[in-house]
Amino acid sequence: MSKNDSSPAFMAGLEPLSRRSLLRTTALAGVAFTTGCARVFGRKDAPEQLEFVHLTEDEVRVITHLTVVLLPTERHGLPSSTETIPTVQNLDDMVGQMSPQTRELLGLGLWVFERRPMVSFKFSRFSKLDREEATRYVHAMQEGSFFERGLTATLKALVTLNYWRDSRTWPALDYWGPVTQKWGVRRLGNAPLPPV
Amino acid sequence: MQRIVRVPQDGVPVTEARDVAADPSMGRKFSIKTDVVVVGSGAGGSVVAYEMAKAGKSVLVLESGKYYPSAEFTEHLGDTIHEVYRDQAGQANSTADVLFIEGNCVGGSTVIGACVMHRLNPSVWQDWADNHGLKDLAPDKIAPYTKIVDRWLNVHVNEAHEINATAHKVIQGCERMGFSWRPVERNVKKCALTGHCLAGCPSDRKMSALVTHLPWAAAYGARLFADTHVTRVLERGGRAVGVEAVIRDPKTGSIVSDLRVDAEVVVLAAGAIHTPLIMQRSQLADRSGRIGNGMAVQPFVQVLSTFKEPVYGFRGALTGVQVDEFQDTDGYFFISGLAEPEQLMAVGEQKAGDAHIEFMKSYNRMAGINAFSLDEGSGSVVWEGGLTDGRKVIKWNPSRKEFKDIVRTTALASRILFSAGAERVWLPTFEKMHADSVFDLDDKLRSVDYGINGLYTFRMNTFSPHGSARMGVDPYESVVSPDGEMHDVSGLYVADASLFPTPVAAGPQWATQVFAKYVSDRILARGSNHFLG
Asked: Is residue B326 predicted with pLDDT exceeding 50?
């Protein structure tokens, strides 16, 4: 079982989030890491610890906002990408295993992504854009220059991978997940030595 | 008296960083003496380790990745990527737009591969014999080695039950297009049809090094260290005499101990990226100047499609059939496959917001084809900086010709899927792009501009780098001799895809294992030059 596994029953209690509450979630996530608070979300099945060891405060803000924009889960009956599935926490773990060069590149990419909308979006940073504008910005980046396309695709892959890797998202995809144990498939162990 | 050799029933005896840390006799610095040290435990290294140990040599295998026993495999691709894929599947070229996917664990890429054992066409071996002076690679001479690999690793043509729904779509498309196809050959025993090959096989049916050559080698006394990063080969008077390595805690990256290995023979089998990097760090003599150069990558893109009806293309054996219509003429080949949902993020997903979720929700209606093309072998790997604080740099971007080949393979894969009845084909580009019929496919693909070095055009990946320390007869043109020994350093052998003499249009595992067996025999044949006893 994955460390993120839990009963799919949690989905029944999922409350649709309004745009405002999502933005509040984003802000709360910001508060969570600045104050070291681990349980700002009162839900039983919420990520239990919001401790970002490897990402900086600014990076968490950008990634959390991007998560909200890329994965509007509440409209699709999916587990929340910010409250239920620890998407950003998973990404933080991943960053901890990155080589120094990759880590540096990611930091630079996030810095650029945050500041890129300044001209077209009234000098606002990405994390300050409301959800509609932020979505427009992501789409514009996807249609942009090779650099913009590449940066957006990379960040998007990191965020979405760290959401869909959680088995609680799979029922919505009609995906069977791990089956070996479920089917009672016997382990064969090591192959015998080949004949001399 | 005959020696009784017992293979462990399950798992491999491995010394890990935590074992070293807990053993005061090893301390912060220790040394080991052995006949043969093998760097890398994947397709090549595991074979050499077994052959050497079976021949009575003391063998030490050093693996930079961690030990992830098959009993602990979870069938969660996302978790597996985090644990055992090199750089968490983020190993990329210097422009960060081509992914070089490889395993970083005991057993290497054989653990996380899709079981495809793609044999080389006899004409390739013949070409190497006739045009590269490698007479012992002629088909009739190499045949005994290929037979052993086939038999020992249970290489077989997929049977009917191993052809899943994705593969059936590809067959249907090929039949309508008049393209030749055939079932894939795989190294699997009694496949459980879970579709989770890329996350490792928890029931040990995949004949990876983890359940074959490594436990077999251990049965003959070979020792294996995980978490052990070889920094350089030690050389004295033009002869390899061992290696230096550091043992790192896989969680923190901190150094647990320094290790020196004194050996009669050093075998590099760390893969086509890391073998030349070790050579470069070691500053070995090399008249060819080709260490790390001339690397072929065999780029591939995954073309996804959605159908009207549920396909459940992820169920069953991951790789079912291959399209071989263009293999000999153009160097293209196509393999059916749709892996776990997480994989879509890396290969073909392009949407954001609601559209992204709708895309993901169509997962059960998807089928996919991996479209491979033959490149020109102009990639390189370079170690930049100091021995311990430097970094690897992988250079490869498509030339205009290679770019055209990728466009063409994408078009062919798309046509196969449309012919099978796909409603939509998702083009594997960085730009959001799909085609809803074959009629708008070409226009869409024409709009993908090569731009600057093809940067951020197609979402290219490679499982198959090779040829970065090529075999040949001329020390001014190649890095290793026809025996697999480095021309300029006695006792230093290469036994991985680095030594492929030219780019090939085939997945490299089968040929790597054939070469590893071949090189092992060469080492033993020259034993009097290397071994004292």
From this structure: yes
- The string over B367-382, giving b where at least 16 C-beta atoms fall within 10 Å of a residue's C-beta and e elsewhere, is bbbbbbbbbebbbbbb
Residue carrying structure tokens 């291959």: B322
Beta carbons of B78 and A1 less than 8 Å apart: no
Q: At B264, which amino acid appears?
A: E
Confidence of residue A4 (pLDDT cuts 50, 70, 90): very low
Average pLDDT over residues B54-80: 95
Question: Under DSSP, is residue A109 helix (H, G, I), strand (E, B) or coil?
Answer: helix
The string of pLDDT tens digits covering residues A10-66 is 222 222 223 333 333 333 333 222 222 222 222 334 444 567 889 999 999 999 999
A146·B455 Cβ contact <8 A: yes
Of B268, B150, B269, nearest to B212 (Cα)?
A: B150
Tokens of B186: 């795989």
Interface of A with B in 143-182 (CB under 8 A): 143, 146-147, 149-150, 153-154, 156-157, 160-162, 164-167, 169-170, 172-181
Q: What is the mean pLDDT of residues B512-530?
A: 95
Name the residue with tokens 């590893």: B516
Please, which pLDDT band fits residue B432 given cuts at 50, 70 and 90? confident
Decide the pairing of beta strands B255-268 and B29-39.
parallel
> Among A129-138, B157-166, B322-331, which is the least confidently predicted range?
A129-138
Contact in structure between A79 and A163 (CB atoms under 8 Å): no
- Cα separation, A82 vs A64, in Å, equals 7
Among candidates B97, B82, B505, which has minimal Cα distance to B328?
B505
Residue range A54-83, pLDDT digits in tens: 999 999 999 999 999 999 999 999 999 999
- Whether chain A has a CB inside 8 Å of the CB on B389: the answer is no
What's the angle, vertex CA B11, arms to CA B10 and CA B15, rounded to 5?
A: 145
Which are the contacts of B114, defined by CB distance < 8 A and separation ≥ 6?
B197, B198, B318, B319, B335, B337
pTM of the model: 0.90
Query: How many helices and strands in chain B, by DSSP H and E?
Result: 16, 21
Among B341, B70, B41, B371, which Cα is nearest to B192's?
A: B70
pLDDT of A68: 95
Identify the pLDDT of residue B350.
67
Residue of chain B whose alpha carbon sits nearest to that of A135 = B353
| Residue ranges of A 103-142 with Cβ closer than 8 A to chain B | 105, 135, 138-139, 142
Contact B5 A193 (CB under 8 A): yes
What are the beta bridge partners of residue B303? B369
Distance CA B243, CA A66 (A): 46
Say if the Cβ atoms of B352 and A139 lie within 8 Å. yes
Instruction: Tell me whether residues A189 and B10 touch, CB distance under 8 A.
Output: yes
Residue A152 CA to its chain's centroid (Å): 14
Q: Give me the phi and psi of B107, to 5 degrees please.
A: 105, -15
Choice among A12-26, B220-234, B267-281 with the minimum mean pLDDT: A12-26
Report the alpha-carbon distance of residue A146 to residue A154 in Å, rounded.
12
B194 to A185: CB separation less than 8 angstroms, yes or no? yes
ipTM of the complex in this document: 0.93
Per-residue pLDDT reduced to its tens digit, B125-151: 999 999 999 999 999 999 999 999 999
**So where are chain A's domains?**
47-167
Token pair of B477 as six digits: 């043109």
pLDDT score at A1: 33
- The nearest CA of chain A is from the CA of B163 a distance in Å of 18
Q: Give the CA-trace dihedral at B511, B512, B516, B519, to 10 degrees.
A: 70
> How many CB pairs lie under 8 A apart between chains A and B?
187
